[in-house]
Design goal:
Shape: flat
Largest sheet: 6 strands, antiparallel
Number of domains: 1
Distance between the termini: 36 Å
Helix content: 25-40%
Structural class: alpha+beta
Length: about 230
Amino acid sequence: MKKLYVLLCMAFLMLQASAQSDSTHSHTLTKAETDDFFTPAFKKKNLINFPIFRAYTYSDKSGTYYVALSESSDKIKAKDTINNTIKAFNFKVDKGVATKKWEINDFKLPDTKGATIESSIWFWTKYCEFTDLDGDGLIEPIVVYGTFGNNGYDDGRLKILVYYKGQKSAIRHQNGVLDGERKTQVDLTFYSLPAKVQAHVKELMEKMVKNNHAIFPSKYLDKMAKKATQIAD
């Protein structure tokens, strides 16, 4: 009887996890879908003044959301779009009413003494995700963006933003070829995130290194993992 009870409990937990997974959904909006939701009137009301580069929608047990990633598109240079500023917006839709839940604002570093520090800033949609990482039925949005320095990615900046139950945790990183040029700042709130979320972000960071988009020494990533374990203990 006891064995049967354990099996029933396990089956219930598996069904519950499956139901939570099935209750979440996300996808990238087409241009037509983007224009349908982010109408000129809606953009004007919510001060979305830059062109929307990419838009998403996602749903979980807390509701339905729409996200717009917008870039200033200041000029075209060698077929590349140069952005001085970026903004992102997250709206929750309930009974036909859209309420802004969070907003991201950032810009490339200004020139100093006639020297260009950064040439452009943009969203790295290759690493942006809207997934339920810990199986609690809530999606954890991850938004990543960065800049080009004088040597491209090698001395640019990047920022990883993780939204967990409405709270933002950030990892800010300055790339650099030399050890002394690199600097990484991790919000303390990041180490309070579920282990699965932290592990996934670390995997993203490793992927950035593999793709030559960031320079995170392996010993630093190991240090992050060790600190997460110490805080959990």
